[in-house]
Amino acid sequence: YISIDMEGLWGLSSWSEDKQDVKRAITRELKVVLGALEKSTGGKLNVLVADSHSYGENLIMEELPDYVEVIRGYPRKFYMMHGLDETFDACMFIGYHTPCGLTPGQMDHTYSSSSIFKIEINGRSVGESEINALLAGHFNVPVILISGDNQLFNFSKKNFPKTQFVITKYAISKFAARMRPWKEVVEEYKIKVRKAVENIEKISPIKWEPPYTVEIELLDTSKAYTASIIPGAALVDGRKVSFSSSDFKDIYRFIMSTSLIAWAARKS
Q1: Which positions does UniProt annotate for Zn(2+) 2 binding (predicted)?
Q2: Is-contact 9 95, C-beta < 8 A?
């Protein structure tokens, strides 16, 4: 299972990039990963890819191998991880990024740049990598490789001690980065994908002790109040809402619901 985003991809530095350039970049980097997987597995592959940036309409479908299925479009109940279940051997996160506000990472945000400032689960600051990995852990699926900028590596490595990381670029600020030479990135993908596949049995799924309490800090009081209408949600203070459950799927759906509702309330 591959969940691919845009902000951590090589060659891109801002959301103002030309849409066709984004499509070419996300397709190019996915093809590099798939090529490395083919060599590492002898070509015996069944791959499901979640096109997970914005509305999920980024991949150039006709350029992908025949063995690849793609989840495309929006909305989806499990957004970046839709379609994942316990039948998968492993998952990879490609083109990922840091959480909002914690480091000067490339296009840092957590699901919604227009609504969400910070997310904590059981008192720990998390980004999309951690949240998506916990959902994968619910299905007992390990995350074997993550790629993105150096600030993503700096933030998330502690939570993924045995996962392979590929650094695609070095963040200067939210909308500026120093790109590594493309050939170096390609070669690192080949090496790290091979290591990830070879060590798949040694990489444990990410699991935290339930019950889970998620606290979401929104950008303004109107968004937080609107999100607090979700059944089971509690308004912690002017800009924070919380929700608890022993089932991480409920936590994930609450985060997605909050993101959507807060976005809809942006003019309130």
Answers
A1: 5, 53, 97, 128
A2: yes
- By annotation, the residues acting in catalysis are 109
Q: Which residues are annotated as a binding site?
A: 5, 7, 53, 97, 128
* CA pseudo-torsion sign 38, 207, 4, 254: positive
Residue ranges of the chain assigned to CATH 3.30.1360.130: 212-264
Residues 32 and 194 sit within 8 Å (Cβ to Cβ)? no
> Which phi and psi angles does 172 have, rounded to 5°?
-100, -45
CATH 3.40.1280.10 fits 212-264, yes or no: no
Query: What residues does CATH 3.40.50.10780 cover in the chain?
Result: 2-100+127-202
| Cα atoms in the Cβ-side hemisphere of radius 13 Å centred on 237 | 4
Q: How confident is the model at residue 267 (pLDDT cuts 50, 70, 90)?
A: low
Condensed to tens digits (0 to 9), the pLDDT of residues 180-205 reads: 999 999 999 999 999 999 999 999 99
Residue 268 has pLDDT above 60, yes or no: no
CATH number of 2-100+127-202: 3.40.50.10780
Q: How is residue 84 annotated by DSSP?
A: -
Please write the tens of the pLDDT for every residue from 64-107.
999 999 999 999 999 999 999 999 999 999 999 999 987 789 99
**241, 228 Cβ separation under 8 angstroms:** yes
In the predicted model, what is the mean pLDDT of the chain? 96
Residues flagged as binding site for Zn(2+): 5, 7, 53, 97, 128
